[in-house]
């Protein structure tokens, strides 16, 4: 199945009958796909800009109505947890958006789709396309169905209540049981960073990203997931 067919299947599953399919094609086109001067602007970046603003509006409205006793600062923290890159990346993967993404060839494709930021951006771009093509209500329903739902509620609330990123959580755990802190071993290959979360010569998690920070966050997440599965 080619990428266009995957896109059409996705829209059908979402009960979306596109008025203009080009918006959705654009939402799934990375800037590395078009390198010609005349077409290089034909990518998802403008739709991602729109989707980002729209997502913040929807999450703000949702939290305002749901958490009636919370302060402005608490609502801001909840929204930040709901729309953070890690959350959107997970939703994007679950929806299969990366399998529709058109990118440059070979290793470039692998580097692009492994980026947390790209994964999150594609979700926002798709939201932007739905809004432009179908209107606010359909876009709102899309976010409610896939992001602001019971499945994600616990993850979002955990991030809201702790306010801590995976690196901080992992660091605090090891500080509570050992005099030695967790540290990260970094490698770079073709602008892609690999990080290993290491404690006392044992690798607890490995992560990749297009920046050192992204790679270390991914390594910390992998370590936390591994430890949770082992009941640590």
UniProtKB/TrEMBL annotation:
Give one GO biological process term: mRNA processing
Q: Which reaction does it catalyse?
A: Endonucleolytic cleavage to 5'-phosphomonoester
Q: Which residues act catalytically here?
A: 52, 124
Q: Where in the cell is it found?
A: Cytoplasm
The answer to whether keyword Cytoplasm applies is yes
In the UniProt record, the signal sequence range is none
The entry's Mg(2+)-binding residues are 48, 121, 124
Enzyme type, top EC level: hydrolase
Q: Which residues form the RNase III domain?
A: 7-135
Q: Mind naming one GO cellular-component term on file for this protein?
A: cytoplasm
- So which cofactors does this thing need? Mg(2+)
| Domain DRBM residues, every copy | 165-229
Keywords linked to the UniProt accession: Cytoplasm, Endonuclease, Hydrolase, Magnesium, Metal-binding, mRNA processing, Nuclease, RNA-binding, rRNA processing, rRNA-binding, tRNA processing
EC assignment = 3.1.26.3
Under the GO molecular function aspect, what terms does this record hold? double-stranded RNA binding; metal ion binding; ribonuclease III activity; rRNA binding
Q: What does this protein do?
A: Digests double-stranded RNA. Involved in the processing of primary rRNA transcript to yield the immediate precursors to the large and small rRNAs (23S and 16S). Processes some mRNAs, and tRNAs when they are encoded in the rRNA operon. Processes pre-crRNA and tracrRNA of type II CRISPR loci if present in the organism.
Q: Which NCBIfam families match?
A: RNaseIII
User: What is known about its subunit structure?
Assistant: Homodimer.
Q: Which family does it belong to?
A: Belongs to the ribonuclease III family.
Descriptive protein name = Ribonuclease 3
Species this protein is from = Mycoplasmopsis mustelae
Q: What is the lineage of its organism?
A: Bacteria, Bacillati, Mycoplasmatota, Mycoplasmoidales, Metamycoplasmataceae
- Quote the gene name from the UniProt entry: rnc
């Amino acid at each position: 199945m080619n990428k266009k067919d995957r896109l059409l299947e996705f829209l059908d599953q979402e009960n979306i009958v596109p008025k203009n399919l080009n918006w959705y094609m654009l939402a799934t086109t990375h800037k590395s796909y078009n390198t010609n001067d005349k077409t290089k602007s034909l990518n998802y970046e403008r739709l991602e800009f729109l989707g980002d603003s729209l997502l913040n509006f929807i999450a703000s409205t949702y939290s305002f109505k749901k958490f009636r006793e919370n302060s402005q600062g608490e609502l801001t923290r909840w929204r930040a947890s709901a729309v953070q890159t890690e959350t959107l990346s997970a939703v994007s993967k679950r929806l299969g958006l990366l399998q529709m993404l058109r990118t440059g060839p070979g290793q470039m494709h692998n580097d692009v789709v492994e980026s947390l930021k790209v994964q999150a951006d594609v979700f926002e771009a798709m939201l932007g396309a739905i809004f432009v093509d179908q209107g606010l209500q359909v876009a709102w329903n899309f976010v409610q169905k896939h992001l602001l739902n019971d499945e994600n509620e616990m993850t979002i609330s955990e991030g809201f209540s702790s306010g801590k990123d995976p690196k901080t959580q992992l660091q605090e755990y090891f500080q509570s049981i050992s005099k030695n802190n967790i540290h990260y071993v970094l490698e770079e290959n073709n602008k892609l960073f690999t990080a290993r979360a290491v404690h006392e010569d044992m690798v607890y998690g490995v992560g990749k990203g297009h920046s050192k920070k992204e790679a270390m966050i991914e390594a910390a997440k992998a370590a936390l997931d591994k430890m949770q599965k082992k009941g640590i």
